[in-house]
Write a structure and sequence with these properties.
Number of strands: 14
Distance between the termini: 42 Å
Structural class: alpha/beta
CATH topology of the largest domain: Rossmann fold
Strand order of the largest sheet: 1-2-10-7-8-9
Number of helices: 16
Strand content: 15-25%
Length: 412
Amino acid sequence: MPIKSPVTLETIREAQAQLKGHIVRTPLIAAPALSDMTGVDVRLKLENLQITGAFKARGALTKLVSLPPEARRAGVIAVSAGNHAQGVAWHAGKLGIPATIVMPVGTPMTKIQRTEALGATVVRFGESYSEAEEFALDFAEQKKLTVVHPFDDPLVISGQGTIGLEILEDCPEVDAVIAPIGGGGLISGIATAIRALKPQVVIDGVQAYTYAAMSGAISGFGGAIGGQTLAEGIAVKKPGKLTRTICEALLRDIHTVNETAIEQGVEVLFSNHKMIAEGAGASPVAALLQNHARFAGKTVVLVISGGNIDPALLATILMRGLAREGRLTRLRIGISDQPGSLARVTRVIGEAGANIVEVHHQRLFLDVSVKMTELDVLVETMGFDHVANLVQVLSSAGFPARILSSSTQDGR
């Protein structure tokens, strides 16, 4: 439906001209594994390959280049614990604009150090985003700084909307686009661009279940707002006024996904497409996996909005993914407490084609016979059928075994 908005196809095209040569024109690639999994022609718009690893660099630069000389000299201020901070810091440094970033006190030190390395001054304040924002607004007024809002600013939205233009240039046959929603700046820009040029294209958003603020504002969805989420990049408690208006007018639907689905999205992108995505960036994959029947036979672009994920967290997700697939399983095996027993059980496991990752003895507990010991063995296998066969082989060899992992075939 037509809407009155300061964000238009013209403002987005102006932003595209301003950004040319200063940001990465990210690739849009086919995703054959995801296509096979879902029955959908899936394409990936890789904003995880953007400068600073996320789409935020687009909107930040669009806002910064609009500032008059006196505002540039005074400097800018932004509130962020992640991608927006780095986008503002990167481009402000390139333009010679002093930048102050206000981050909540609980922000991980790596994000603070990364932002400071880009030349920004980091101020830590408040336990939450809202407390940090209130401080930043007061500080901006005192110091005459320009606030660079992460999403509810027409110039920022127009910058993010350049992604929509690139999607149509690279995939004119697109039927639908799925993009993450936090405050709504990204999807508002994309939807404005695409629906202006091809109104038949469906635009769907996706939110973490624990932060379904936009769908709550539009449709009254009753999910809790707050808590821990892997998708911290879209963990926004209150959407913008402008972005809400645009989303309400231009989106077909907003999907909500739980933490397990987001985790699987990260794992699927890495394992099947060798792509590193943060939780927010992988949320469109989670939405498609849960709702693929709605997109059957269509060409769907998933906006992978960012790739800034902690390496240790990524490693944990990948290991949990192996467990979900039955490729990493913990067994408890009973053996006699005699010399050579451990060697025999490891030989049986090896001959069955499994690989031992780690072994722990359980010999001091009272529910185990003094003549027996139990082994907790973490093994790599080829899947659930292989695990079942391994348990049977061990039991037949005189080593009773049972699965300790919660990842059984019924729980896949």
